[in-house]
Amino acid sequence: MEKNIEIYAAKLKNYYDPDGKLKQYPSKRPMRIIALSKIAEKLDLEKKYTEKEVNEIIRDSIAFGDIELIRREMFQYKLIGRLKDGSEYWLESDWREVYGEY
Fold first, then answer.
1. Three-class DSSP category at 20
2. Which of 11-15, 50-54, 69-73, 74-78 has the lowest mean pLDDT?
3. Dist CA 15 CA 70 (whole Å)
4. How crowded is the C-beta side of 36, counted as CA atoms within 13 Å?
5. Residue 8: CB partners within 8 Å, gap ≥ 6?
6. Of 4, 31, 43, 57, which residue has the fewest beta carbons closer than 10 angstroms?
7. pLDDT value for 25
8. The model's pTM
9. How far apart are CA 5 and CA 59, in angstroms?
């Protein structure tokens, strides 16, 4: 699996613009997880975020407009958690263990 991850990571470089922003959301799951992990690394484990703050971090990380897609995917892949009403977000403490091979 490690060899495949290296291949996906290399291919993923084509998805970023010169400023390091994600130009397009990858269709393959491993590449998605790698891309989402790069965004998750910008969040502080000790901090609680508002939806607006999470959106701003995502906005600064992508070059396309679908911030909501990225936020939902980060939640679905359990990189971030949130309250049911969406008023508070946080970085899940175990996301690195879950996706350690990526």
1. coil
2. 11-15
3. 15
4. 28
5. 28, 30, 31, 34
6. 4
7. 96
8. 0.88
9. 26
> Of 11, 38, 42, which is closest to residue 27 (Cα–Cα)?
11
pLDDT band of 2, cuts 50, 70, 90 = low
* Separation between Cα atoms, residue 96 and residue 53, nearest integer Å: 21
pLDDT at 1: 52
User: What tokens does 100 get?
Assistant: 């350690």
Q: 């407009």: which residue's tokens?
A: 65
Distance CA 15, CA 95 (A): 23
Torsion of CA 21, 89, 50, 23, to 10 degrees: 10
Tens of pLDDT, residue by residue over 16-34, are 999 999 999 999 999 999 9
